């Protein structure tokens, strides 16, 4: 491992097989945390490659707990986080809109590490427990077509890595890898990253990992979601083809809006924002979710264009179906806790 560490410190990229070996070393329980931190920092300084990301994702997923769903066709819309822009939980809100439009959502997520409120933080503020069992997760997926997989529940090897990441307090390769390690078999994926110059490489990672269709976006001003504030950079993965394109809010009939208008707060504040927009209250928060859910519907193949996807997202919200999905997941979560606590 010293050889690989030295290569990275010297700014040299690791081959896929080398990173597979390094990833095994990272996940060993006896690997010193300070050495892991040093390696992750060096990778970040050098700049991670598609092969390094794919190798780490492959190793991490091999350690994940299995989620034995009976059906295929699930989608994840988890982003990488780490953009430092302190927006509200866009992809979590979009997940309910997608589910309300009939997309089967298995969303991966975690607590805050380099943000004000991670997806698991805001879910708990909404009344959704993240520590449900694998069996309960499968039941929820089959019953409601949407469930949230809290990363530490499905990745037992993540505990020590999480401690290292929190100590570092800044984005690492694990931000890039997180959305790629969902243990539910995915047919489609919509992922935001905060690196516009890495969009094509990230799309190639999704292709390496076997996604038949996926969309990667880097939003205006480095947002790890599609943004209303300017031009968004995309790559569509479609049956082996990597197709770059760009899009602005105006292109799909939504208003251009500065990032400051979608700032979030802590988990409780973001939960209030989410409930209001899912209830149809007009705001830049709502428009941002319409854009991202619209892209998700296009990625899933349910909409022929992103603009059509935005219209479907509006219908999901204004019909009440998106909010109903939120309420159904909250109800299921509360019922589980009542059973566990008992009379």
From TrEMBL:
EC number(s) on file: 2.4.2.18
Residues given in the record as Mg(2+) 1 binding sites: 91, 225
Names of required cofactors: Mg(2+)
Binding site for anthranilate 2: 165
Binding positions (5-phospho-alpha-D-ribose 1-diphosphate): 79, 82-83, 87, 89-92, 107-115, 119
Ranges for domain Glycosyl transferase family: 74-323
All residue ranges annotated as the Glycosyl transferase family 3 N-terminal domain in the record: 3-64
One GO CC term, this protein: cytosol
EC category name: transferase
Binding locations of anthranilate 1: 79, 110
InterPro entries for the chain: Anthranilate_Pribosyl_Tfrase, Glycosyl_Trfase_fam3, Glycosyl_Trfase_fam3_N_dom, Glycosyl_Trfase_fam3_N_dom_sf, Nuc_phospho_transferase
Short name of one Pfam family: Glycos_trans_3N
Cofactor note: Binds 2 magnesium ions per monomer.
Coiled coil is among the record's keywords: no
Functional pathway: Amino-acid biosynthesis; L-tryptophan biosynthesis; L-tryptophan from chorismate: step 2/5
Binding residues annotated for Mg(2+) 2, in chain numbering: 224-225
Gene Ontology BP terms: L-tryptophan biosynthetic process
UniProt catalytic activity: N-(5-phospho-beta-D-ribosyl)anthranilate + diphosphate = 5-phospho-alpha-D-ribose 1-diphosphate + anthranilate
Keyword annotations of the record: Amino-acid biosynthesis, Aromatic amino acid biosynthesis, Glycosyltransferase, Magnesium, Metal-binding, Transferase, Tryptophan biosynthesis
A molecular-function term among this protein's GO annotations: magnesium ion binding
Function: Catalyzes the transfer of the phosphoribosyl group of 5-phosphorylribose-1-pyrophosphate (PRPP) to anthranilate to yield N-(5'-phosphoribosyl)-anthranilate (PRA).
NCBIfam families xref list: trpD
Subunit structure: Homodimer.
Family statement: In the C-terminal section; belongs to the anthranilate phosphoribosyltransferase family.
Protein name in UniProt: Anthranilate phosphoribosyltransferase
Species per Swiss-Prot/TrEMBL record: Lysinibacillus macroides
Gene assigned in the entry: trpD
